[in-house]
Fold each of these.
Amino acid sequence: MKVACDRTAIVAAVNLVAGVVPARTTVPAMSGLRLTAAKHAGVGELSLAGTDAETSVVLTITQVDVAQPGTAVVSAEKLRAILQSVDESNPTVAFELDGDLFSIKASHGKFKIITFKEGEFPQIPDFAKAAAGARSAFNAPAGTLRRLIDRTIFAIASETSRYAINGLLMKRDGKKLEMVATDGRRLALCRATIKASGGDGDKVSCIVPRKALGLFQRLAGDPESNVRVAITDNRIFFAFEDGPEGAKEDAKKHPVATLSSALVEGAFPPYEDVIPKDQDRRITAAREEFIRAVRQAAVLTNEESRGVRMAFNKKSKSAKITSRAPEMGESEIDLDLTGFEGDDLEISFNPGYLADALKTMDEPEVLIELKAANKPGIIKAGSDFLYVVMPVNLPA
């Protein structure tokens, strides 16, 4: 292998793919990245692959000059550290494999790393094979999938014995796509409509782990670019393409990145049952003003009094948001409302839970639906996002 790489491109690629490599492993080669240099139609490419056995990423960059194709498995930690130490004034970094020594050259430095044996690197699941036998395969814009993930990932449970809610439920029914996450105290649900693609009658659901979703957020670049999704019995695959969906086939390149992950086992709870259907108070507020008021009130809270009290008043069409923490102080924030249906109500929420949802929205106005002080509230934005949050009990 002998390759010259654009420094910016290779640093970004290594940082991204190294994110999947486990910090500790009993398989030494799994702590490495597999680098494969090749030429396709005269264009040089360098593919980087990393895996922790559960999740895998393959990323291809073309800002390279391939003098000699080849493959090397190199320590992810060492390669990353070396590239980060290279001065930004170096526009190019050169790689060369000689036996089991991998050389890295910049204008003022040269490094040599002992490589792992290529055969010891774990096998990466193949997207094409998976898609051919998938339970469901479809296309969607990267921006659509990213929006669904951004609006739900924060509600995924962590460190719970209920393993199934440690991931995000993805449901596809023809052109309808839905993602749901819950930790038992709140639930986020977001929907989207995707264009027609093969197998539009398919109905499928699966639970995707948080790590894979975080990698998707980092891999998703151009929101208009196409992502091919394939779901098998135990894995999910995302293949990121260069061009937008609908581009001519001869203008498309093979995927610039492929992400695959094992699915979370277990049955997701029947989330429809916890979405309230009988809310009798409907309150609308400007999203920016609402989140600003919540954040201001949250300043004077602590772990013992992690809640803000909201007093909604129909007559003045306003809400008074207050907080109080022993030995710290108290706050009182006034919020004007744009609409109010129903009777006055006082209810308390964890401000962090409210902010988590509000900051993912881009709609100018949100709808808050309430029933009683001890009943869950609903926040809606547009027709595709719904957030259920449980109230908290605060001392009088």
Amino acid sequence: MALDRERALRELMELLNIEAGPAKEKPVAEWLRARFKSFGVKDSQVLVDEAQHQSEYGGDTGNVIVRFDGHGKGPRRLLSTHMDTVPLAVGAKPRLDGDYIRNDAPGKALGGDNRLGCGVVLQAVRRLAELGGKHAPVTCVFHVQEEVGLVGARGLDVKKLGDPKPSLGFNFDSAEPQNILTKVIGTQRFEIKIAGKPAHAGEHVHLGVSASQVAAYALADLGRSGWHGKIANSEGEGSANAGILRGGEGTNVVVPEFYILAEARAWDPQFRKRIVEKWKEVFAKAAAEVKNEMGECASVSFGPGPGYEAFAIPDEAPVVQEALAVTKAAGLEGRTYSNKGGVDANHLNAHGIPTVTFGCGMREVHTAKEYIVLKDYYDACQIALNIVAAAERA
């Protein structure tokens, strides 16, 4: 089936104009459900799980699941994407510019990551509704809270996906549609909480214990010793980063508390653990070194944050072979690749659903330079329709 490009573009522009960051995806979910109803999808086919209840961030909706059980023969296919954007995209003003979509809101991201994916999977839902059950089982999922650690995919209620469980998974969340992501590194986020001792920064500064000083000592030590940023030593390879740092309420108070959200990435799960252990050692050492005149020092505690395991799907796997076939049917030369980011497919693979990821047209994501390549979006939509066609032939 050929894609109706004008309709797909109109739907994408509507999606880009919805403000909904992580844990605030309900407006997108409601927009999608209204579209499903207009396609003739029955209410009983649309399910919403409770993934928000296991989230560190709360949330106003769970993952939206649309199930088409078809004639029940052949493997169940899964098409997935996520509804949230990075917070920087809230307030974006999308503008059509020939073969591109750009942003007229200065300093804002556009939100193509991942309203593009929503537009792509929406085309599959429409086509499945038109087929009236004359196809192998297909389930479509619109995840929440991808941008804050793949939290929606982690909490996905797999039982709601249908029986049999999907065995061929296709996620849409990247740049070029011909590039098929089959291998992704694992990541562990972790919290660091430093407790110092407050004191007036002038009159009683000698009685304070600065939590920010502990953080500075530790991060400098980690940088000098090769355990921050790119990591490559005799123990392994990976990376680590202190991404969120908060502390202090005024220049006249010795900082009593300091918070850091950091992450460790490595293909080897044991080396990821080693990175976190090294950070614990260095922060404990720094906390012991920073003392006031009374000999009192700071303390530090660590807590887990959202994480996900690595995955690697071989090229000969059925899901990769079908991904290459539907890409070729769209007139593209598909290729497999790996990266060191993170996508919902990390958790889908962990749930036992072999899942690859296609691009759908986003560029310069998470920045004020973000823009969309419409040819890639249309190609991704065609790939989604080709996946449905494969289910129709099964």
Amino acid sequence: MEGLAHVGLSAIMVWLALMAVRFRDLLISVVTLAGLGLVLSLEFYLLRAPDVAIAEAAIGAGLTTAIYLIALRGSRREEE
């Protein structure tokens, strides 16, 4: 049962990564990358590495997303 969870989370991570690259709007891509970081932190937790999971959630999903959003604030959004 646990192996199925790892396969499912891996599939979700691949899908989120592909969607982050595919979206043309950078804001949506940043939000998708934040979701990827959260799913990755859940995977680390399931692998019994809670300290790495907390660090990934804080840095990978939180801080990195904030830095990307600050950088996007200074640029123009492309909308179609």
